[in-house]
Amino acid sequence: MNRRVVITGCGAVSPVGSTVDRFWENLKNGKCGIDFIKKFDTTDLKVKIAGEVHDFEPLDYIKKNEIRKTDMFTQYGIGAAVQAMEDSGVQAHVDPTRLGVYMGSGIGGIHTFIDECHKMDEKGPGRISPFFIPMMISNIAAGTIAIRYNAQGPCLPVVTACATGTNAIGEAYRAIKHGYADAIISGGTEASITPLSIAGFANLTALTTTNDPTQASIPFDKRRNGFVMGEGAGALILEDLETALKRGAKIYGEIVGYGHTCDAYHITAPHPEAIGGTRAIAQAMAEAVNAGVHFEDSQIYVNAHGTSTPLNDKSETIAIKNALGDHITRTLVSSTKSMTGHMLGAAGAIEAIASVMALKDGIIPPTIGYKEADPDCDLDYVPNEKRAVQSDVALSISLGFGGHNGCLAFIRYTGE
Length: 416
What we know:
The protein is α+β, with helices and mostly antiparallel strands. The protein has a single domain, classed as Thiolase/Chalcone synthase (Peroxisomal Thiolase, Chain A, domain 1), CATH 3.40.47.10. It is built from 13 helices and 13 strands. Helix 7 crosses helix 13 (347-361). The longest helix is centred in the N-terminal third of the chain and has 17 residues, at 72-88. The two termini are 19 Å apart.
C-alpha cells in the first residue's frame, strides 16, 4: 500500500500565540515571543529569558477536576490536539481502530517530577501523589489524547529530544501511507521552562546568556552564542487523502517525504561535516521525487532547525547545501526559533505547521534579529521581514541531542 497523506487540521500552543491563527499571524509579522521569565524568580540563574506561553487557558480544554492530575506538558498537548481535531472534523468519519495518536515529548512531566522531589525531601514518601508516575511519564500526553478521542489505533509517543515533533509526524505519515491507520493526531509537546531545566542547559553552555530578548535567539547571525528555551505544543491531523476527499475535508497541504538518521557521533554536538543531517534531508527529498516532486522546477522553502548555537547553524547550513546541491539557488531558509525560542520536543511540530502555512499562504516567515552575516552561514535566511514568495515545496528540519536528524517534505495540495 502506498497512499497519499494530507494535513486536515492544525493546533498550536506557542510563545507567539495559542491558536494557529495568532501563531501564524505573529510569525509572519516577525513578532518576538521571547522575554524575561515571569513564571518564577530568576535571581540565582545565569539565564533569565525564555519563550514562555502566556495566553493558554487549560480550562478551555480540560475539566477543572482533571487539571491537577495532568502535568503542564500534557495540558499543552491536549490543547493543541483539541484545536486540531475541531479544525479537522475527522472523528465522525474514521473507525476508532483506524485513528491513532503520535504525540511525543522530549522531556515529559518535569514540573511534576520537581514538585514531587520537593515533597519527598520535605515531607517524606507518604506524601507523594498517587498520580506522580502517570503525570510524569513522557507517553501520557499521547495516552490522554487517545482516551479523549477513543483513538484505538496505533499510539506512538516518540522521544528523540529536539527532533521529537518531526519524527512523530514522520512516523505517523508512514503509518498512514502504508495502511496501518486512516488518520493520526501527530505532533509534540513540551513544558520544561523550570529553574532546574534552565540551570541544566545553562551549565551545559547550551543557552545564550544575552539579556536582550530581541537579540537572544539570532539564528545564523555571527553573534549567536546559544539557544533560548521555549515551550508549547503543535498538533497536525494527518489523514489518508481518499478518506479526506470522501468527507469533503479542508486540506492544508500534503506530506510527500520523510528522512530520519543518526549522526552516531556525540551526545550533544552535531557532526562537523553534517553527514547525518545531509542524509535525512536527502531521504525526504528522494521520497518526494518518487511522489512526483520536480525539485529542478521548484521554489523551495526550508524551515531550518536554526537554534542560534554556533555549531548547529554552521553544520545545518552545510547539510542544506549538500542535500540541495544546485537547487540551493531557488531556496529560501528561515528559522522561526528566532521568534518562538527552541520548543524542544514541540519544535518540529510547530515548525511543520509554519511550513505548511508558508506554502498555503505564499508567505515565507522571517529570521528576526539578524544583523551580522557569518561566512559559515551563507544562505538567504529571509532576514527580519517576511517575503511574499509562492513556494512549491517546503522542507522542515529538526536536529536533536544524541545525533537525531529528521526532515519532512511538504507540498501545496492542488486538488490533483
